Amino acid sequence: MINIKLFLPLAVYLACSFGSAVHADRYAPAPPADHSQPWCGGDIHISRADTIPYPEGGIVQVGPYFFRACRSNLAAAPDGKRAIRFYYNPRRVDGLSFDKAMVGLMINGLFTWGKNFNPYAERSKSVGYKTIGNVEYELRQYSRPNDDTWIGRKFLVYTPSSAADPIPQHVVVCYKEFERHPAESMNCFLQVGYDQIWGNLLFIGGGPNLKPIPLEDFPKYAEDIYRILETADVTERVENGTIDLPRLD
Fold first, then answer.
1. What is the mean pLDDT of residues 116-145?
2. Burial bucket for residue 38 (CB in 10 Å: 0-12, 13-18, 19+)
């Protein structure tokens, strides 16, 4: 499970730093794909620290996978054990629903998706189902063994119905009860499994000052995150020696 004490400050910083890079409506539908654009281009890429002299990107290892990315100054990470902000031009992704899926996206190869996901099941109990965006989620509640008096926060789990299901396995964790949004501000993490690693996207919204979090679109955002990683996954080409891009790590 996420180490919230370490991750949340970084995630909040990223959300605030990069949120302004999106057009006025940060949750607006993405324009169509345009493969004529450079891999490391687009309107979202604003961090000078990430500027690299390779318009077509470079290779970075996360977990056992190699991705085509636009990052610089990455410290060495044996076996790809790292968690990084992940970015490339969203116009290179076919079928992307929202550019927001690329803003502040973190991918984690420090430990496997299974190690992140399993504690959610082991430390909770099923309390029903909730439909979001016409997709049925299992509603679970944190629990303590042998202590039925303790009431924990609820979260949502989606498990694909079959291998053909386009929506990947993912978890939605919010730091207030869902029913308190949008009247109150809150933040939610959308965690999406990509085989052995996982992506994590922070949403902050609601209350009197912020646009509500688009909870109804979370199934589409989960698909977007998986599609972003799948599009950039060049593991097979790296292993076969059929890609000519610099290593960024």
1. 91
2. middle
**In the block, which residue shows the tokens 């539908």?**
29
Element (H, E) at 230: helix 218-232
Helix-strand-coil split of the chain, %, nearest 5? 25, 25, 45
Pick from 136, 58, 43, 48: nearest CA to 90: 43
| Distance, CA of 44 to CA of 28 (rounded, Å) | 14
Question: What is the sign of the dihedral through the CA atoms of 62, 3, 27 and 40?
Answer: negative
CA distances from 51 to 55, 87, 216 (A): 9, 11, 34
DSSP for 189-210, please give it: EEEEEETTEEEEEEEEE-TTTS
What pLDDT score does 157 carry?
Answer: 97
* pLDDT band at residue 164 under the 50/70/90 scheme: very high
Tell me what pLDDT residue 65 has: 98
CA angle 132, 133, 134 (to 5 degrees): 90
Cross-strand partners of 202: 189
- 51 pLDDT band (50/70/90 cuts)? confident
Taking the domains of the chain in order of start, what are their residue ranges? 4-240
* Burial of 161 (C-beta count, 10 Å sphere; 0-12/13-18/19+): exposed
In angstroms, what is the C-alpha Rg of the chain?
18
